[in-house]
Design a protein that fits this description.
elongated
Amino acid sequence: MKYAENILETVGNTPLVKMNFLTANLPCLVLAKYETFNPGNSVKDRMAIQMVEDAEASGVLKPGGTIIEGTSGNTGMGLALCAVVKGYKMICVISDKQSKEKVDMLKAMGSEVYVCPTDVSPEDPRSYYATARRLSKEIPNSWYVNQYDNPSNSKAHYLSTGPEIWEQTKGKVTHFVVGVGTGGTISGVGAYLKEQNPNIKVWGIDTYGSVFKKYHETGIFDKNEIYPYITEGIGEDILPKNVNFDIIDGFTKVTDKDAAIYTQRLAKEEGMFLGNSAGAAIKGLLQLKDQFTKDDVVVVLFHDHGSRYVGKMFNDDWMRNRGFFDDTATKAIDLIKNHIEEPLVTVKTEELVMHAVERMKNNNISQIPVEDTNGFVGSVDETILFRAIVNDSSVTSKPIKEVMQQPFPIVDGNTAIEEVAKLITKDVQAVLLDLGDGKHHIITKYDIISGLR
């Protein structure tokens, strides 16, 4: 009989799968290293085992100990598999931008999960880097993995992923393309492949908000490049020791929108239900088309499974709310179709200024139409109210009709967006859309900007 002694023995030996549709306009053969076939459904299973086994061998991870790691979810899953099989406790520290599915997945494997804010510096004690380090100091018999700087991360891919790609392509691979986060995959695979053939090109996929591309090209760590981004699993605001920039031939950056759209396209056009970093990887590969010739064999590595993103990149409402759908907006009705059911917030002429201020605050809006029994007779916005209150604080107890301006213009649903935009001026902050049957909806500057982008 042929069987694995435990689930960890099933890690590795993942297939190469030919890309057929999204890469049809490229001159080369594109093969996907399909890492979701690992038991934890990601490439991170490989380095999780390597890091644990090396820690056991060195004595830093002792029997009955606690494994602690800051993770975007996938490394945590690989470590959780190790913890279950080998009898350790597992604590995962994750950032709040990661999908709910990842958090639930880690808890399902028996891990304790701490969720930390994304929009803080790595040095901030609230960051998931700092939190993981702190917990490892506070908890007895614990081991902080630190996948970013742990050399066993790159070692795992040098020993397994790289040799697999070389063998599966019979040494014909000419380019390796992969998203870069901790740097272990690109550095380990790249090092092995270049040892076999120094002419192989290694390309990293980066995201906007990350420092990798500019640092690779200039040697400058530019903090101005660091800002929050949505794409998961790639990019960093630090320089992990596992990123060997000497191995990497170049980077290309992919936007959050393109990464999300191509994550969906992989499923719908290739039948590949993959994670967010795969969308970034395939879009980045397409951006590199001028690097490839008809004789090239390009291997792109896909990190993880789409099941971890069903509430995000595979959720149409989530995509639409972030402007990630290329829906063509041409008419006024297109601008508010995603929130057409929201009621119009108004204020009556005899209501007090303080009522308008409170209503704007409670509804998180910047402007309100003013109406009486005959219809719309005026409007106020935050600028008008600000000036009025600064000039006379007692105005808050006066009727809104004493500070209101002209009513917002009214358009119908078929009015062209360009015509709606012309109605917005310094003094006119919004437009009302007539929905019929006495119903109206407000169109703001933000709605127009979203429709025209």
